[in-house]
Amino acid sequence: MINTHEGKLIPGCDLYYRLLRLDETNKQAIILIHAIFEKLIDIPYRCQEISVAMEKLNWWQSEIDIWYEDQPRHPLTQQLNQLAQAKHLPKQLWTGIIDGILLQLNQLHIAKFNDLVLFTHHRHSLCEMLCCYSLTKQPDKSLLSLARDCGSIIGLISLLQDFSLHLHKGLVIIPQTLTDKYKIPLNSPKEVLQHLELSQALKDFITTIKNYIIDVMQKHQQKKTAITGYFFIGMNIANSLLKKINKQQKFILNKRIVISPLRKYFNSF
User: Between 20 and 30 A from 38 (CA), which of 18, 102, 126, 268?
Assistant: First the structure.
């Protein structure tokens, strides 16, 4: 789910609707958090060589270090540093995102579904938790839990949307339990995509994600406010995407699926 370009919000994206009930200062902080996050998670896909990706991640780690010493160099961190919310963002969450990307560079196949959820925690969950700290200085455990679970759901759907892209970069997001069950070879992306049982494996995988989302959304019964709404709308949009992916499963093998218009998911909140 790409929401920003050069630090600017893409009109009509899912983040646009998640931000509609927030004030301008909070909107800008979250847009910049997402812009930096998207810069980071895009590194493995823009770099052909792991060594180049590692170099870029090391640069960003040093950027975060000096940013928290009030000396940012990148235009996005400079903009975010000018906002009061920047002082509330835990540095370890940014470091955790970088650690998650390093894990992606070195992990070709995820063994179990729970490992995949943990994988999303090191990416989208930490981004949503940063947004949580931006929205309120000292979020309570229930709000942080909501942010974490929202990130996991968004992360799972984002991985599924870009199934083919991840596959061609060497990352198999279908858990090994399913590829073993359906005897799907992992020698090359072409072999995976042409395997006769791939469709059934994806169907089982989507069902697992669907059940996970149901469990998560039943767990959270917080009062709907502008802040909690930011996370609930994000989960509702992700859930709607999953339903569309389930209906148009064959398309995720060669392109990402989007839903439009998104306004109805905002209006129904």
Answer: 268
Residue 13 CB contacts under 8 Å (≥ 6 apart), including other chains: 1, 2, 3, 262
Euclidean distance between CA atoms 143 and 3, whole angstroms: 23
Helix residue spans in 42-162 (DSSP H): 43-46, 50-67, 75-81, 91-106, 113-120, 126-135, 141-161
Q: What is the dihedral of CA 123, 91, 39, 158, to 10 degrees?
A: 20
pLDDT tens profile 247-257: 776 555 555 54
pTM (two decimals) = 0.90
How far apart (Å, rounded) are the C-alpha atoms in residues 195 and 193?
Answer: 6
Structure confidence by residue, pLDDT tens digits, 182-232: 999 888 888 888 888 988 998 899 999 999 999 999 999 878 888 999 999
